[in-house]
Amino acid sequence: MGLISELKLAVPWGHIAAKAWGSHQAAPVLCLHGWLDNANSFDRLIPLLPKDFNYVAMDFGGHGLSSHYSPGFPYHYQNFVSEVRRVAAALKWNRFSLLGHSFGGAVGGMFSCIFPEMVDKLILLESLPFVLDTNEMDNLLTYKRRAIEHVLQVEASRKPEQVVSPGEMLQRLLKKNSHAGEECGKHLLQRGTTQVATGVWLNRDRRITWAEHCLDFVSRELFMHYIKNLQARVLLVKATEGYYALRREDDADKETVMFVVSSLKSVLKERFQYFEVPGNHYIHMNQPQQVARVISSFLQNKEGSPASL
């Protein structure tokens, strides 16, 4: 399935960039990338998925080729959720499916609870539909404070974009993101950087740093309340060597993920499916065939009964 087109969708602060595969007439699937990634995240997976869908992978605001938010306007989780609604309106989609990796899944999860009638299927790849406040209570005010201070600092510094060699940029990415791997890192940087005479610079807005600065953490009680609003069928695909928590130091604690899985199972019943596959957090880029089969059967399955693999 060849790439059909690059899209630029107008928003009040500029545009949201996206890339599309498949026919506009086909059933729509909106793909949401992870924190600090971009739409290239899905380039290896989408060609392995059923051809009779229209896949659109968007760059969140301030990421990839999308416009940065206006000066003084913060990047907040709720804004990214609202971007999904704007993209759906621009594409004239009333009902569609969502495929979210990592942070993109949390955006898709919230969207699916706020606009339940708009979402047919929700696919969570190495992701949970919400980020729970387990292990985070003592940090929440610190995150809020750092978020404000960081933005003020960036605004005050006015330093020009740092230009480095492509090799150095790749090393920086891999240092912060060991699961990505060299090939996957290069692929994300193709869309995440701009080439200039002396090297490359990052396209991403420097006001965006840590996901915890922008997230809404929810309690278990609120989580249970929210998911009762879901009308979508939900598939959660977990990589066995992937992430289990927001911060790496909490990764050994798998209880939160298990709580989310069992809660979704008890609330959604046969509308929920859970699969574990071998691989790490970037399974959909590093070994897309590992997840393509389960996602394909889920997308093509009309009844929502578990697809036989």
From TrEMBL:
Pfam families: Abhydrolase_1. Residues 28-285 form the AB hydrolase-1 domain. Keywords: Hydrolase. One of its GO terms (molecular function) is hydrolase activity. InterPro entries: AB_hydrolase_1, AB_hydrolase_fold, AB_hydrolase_sf. One of its GO terms (cellular component) is membrane. Belongs to the AB hydrolase superfamily. This is Serine hydrolase-like protein 2 isoform X1.
